[in-house]
UniProtKB/TrEMBL annotation:
Oligomer and partners: Homodimer.
UniProt: L-glutamate binding residues: R42
Origin: domain of life: Bacteria
Identification of the protein by name: Phosphoserine aminotransferase
Keywords: Amino-acid biosynthesis, Aminotransferase, Cytoplasm, Pyridoxal phosphate, Pyridoxine biosynthesis, Serine biosynthesis, Transferase
Subcellular location(s) of the protein: Cytoplasm
Cofactor remark: Binds 1 pyridoxal phosphate per subunit.
Taxonomy of the source species: Bacteria, Pseudomonadati, Pseudomonadota, Betaproteobacteria, Burkholderiales
One Gene Ontology term from the biological process aspect of the record: L-serine biosynthetic process
């Protein structure tokens, strides 16, 4: 079976072992005579799949007992509305939400929040082209804000938080869609963590929400029941039919991670992968990445060819070398290599070798 190195930002590469196991179990899950896709979500088999996935995620991220894990739908973009709907109900209206604006995905969250609340931009790197994370001591927070929202990894700009901000007693909410499970974090520093699954976990269609239990029960009355975290939690993520197959694949990914040393081992590998590519970028001016070292994302590495007229050749020749999906986001241009947990270091070595060859050929 021919497999290429897939640098797609999302839906993204899934570990080869997981794809193979899913293929082996596709038509008959562990002898029960059914594919997971056909199972009742309330049946014995799927109940076990869901419980195991949840327990494994709790173990991998060391999620404390007072946090709920919810398997939802709608992606991170739906959560941008679901979060204010769930968190501002007990505030005098309009409530204020503090945002730190670090790029494309922060902007999306901010635009959506405007529908429900007053938005305060506590800090922004917009003036410098969203190339860094503003230092914590520059943030102008609102003392009685409903919550502070950050995006810990800007998937398009390739800008990642290198610290967990202390925001006092105000709940900290984080969009971790593109770096969840890629590095060790202290979950207890956050009130809410959310992530679409299709970057670092599994197929599109599943959204992971990790929420501290005192954040439940603050929803606005207009919050749709299926999006009310308290309701979802009371029904163990089965208020309505959950995305069963993506949950199953996510569960296989969690088991794959456990077999390979958990988050600590993933992080070590991710540091090594990122170092390979950034070290090379530092050594040449044929390619450009303008993010300062401290905020360079380990997951998404955007870069530009100094001579942009070579962009088409770069993409075409990369594909001939089985290196695919390297084109940058349409809003950013250039190239982007997304190197999530499932990208083996051999894939990054192959990319860097190709980039060096390409430089030799066209510099
Ligand atoms: C991909 C991404 C999103 C959008 O997720 P959807 O599943 O398309 O809603 C939001 N935030 C970040 C950080 C992302 O990487």
């Amino acid at each position: 079976m021919k497999r290429v190195y897939n640098f797609s930002p999302g839906p993204a590469a899934i570990a080869q072992e997981v794809i193979q196991q899913a293929a082996d179990e596709m038509t008959n899950w562990r002898g029960c005579g059914l594919s997971v896709m056909e199972m009742s979500h309330r049946g014995r088999e799927f109940t076990e799949i869901l419980a195991t996935a949840k327990n494994d995620l709790r173990e991998l991220m060391a999620i404390p007992d007072n946090y709920k894990i919810l398997f939802m739908q709608g992606g991170a973009i739906a959560e941008n509305a679901i979060i204010p709907l769930n968190l501002i109900g007990k505030k005098s209206q309009p409530a204020t939400i503090d945002f730190v604006n670090t790029g494309h995905w922060s902007v999306k969250s901010i635009e959506e929040a405007h529908k429900y609340a007053k938005v305060n931009i506590a800090a922004s790197s917009e003036d410098s082209g969203f190339n860094h994370v503003p230092a914590r001591d520059t943030w102008m927070l609102t003392p009685d804000a409903a919550y502070v929202h950050i995006c810990t990894n800007e998937t398009i700009g390739g800008v990642e938080f290198d610290f967990t901000p202390d925001v006092g007693n105000v709940p900290l909410v984080a969009d971790m869609s593109s770096n969840i499970l890629s590095r060790e974090i202290d979950v207890s520093k956050y009130a809410v963590i959310y992530a679409g699954a299709q970057k670092n976990i599994g197929p599109a269609g599943l959204t992971i929400v990790i929420v501290r239990d005192d954040m439940l029960g603050h929803a606005l009355p207009i919050c749709p029941s299926a999006f009310d975290w308290k309701m979802v939690d009371e029904h163990d993520s089965m208020f309505n039919t959950p995305p069963t197959y993506p949950i199953y694949i996510a569960g296989l990914t969690f088991q794959w991670m456990k077999r390979h040393g958990g988050v600590a081992a993933m992080e070590k590998n991710n540091i090594a992968k990122a170092k390979l590519i950034y070290d090379y970028l530092n050594s040449t001016d044929f390619y450009i990445n303008k993010v300062p070292a401290a905020n360079r994302s380990r997951m998404n590495v955007p870069f530009f060819l100094k001579d942009e007229s070579l962009n088409g050749k770069f993409i075409a020749e990369a594909e001939q070398n089985d290196l695919v999906q390297l084109k940058g986001h349409s809003s950013a241009g250039g190239m982007r290599a997304s190197i999530y947990n499932a990208m083996p270091i051999e894939g990054v070595q192959a990319l860097v070798a190709f980039m060096k060859d390409f430089e030799k050929k066209y510099a």
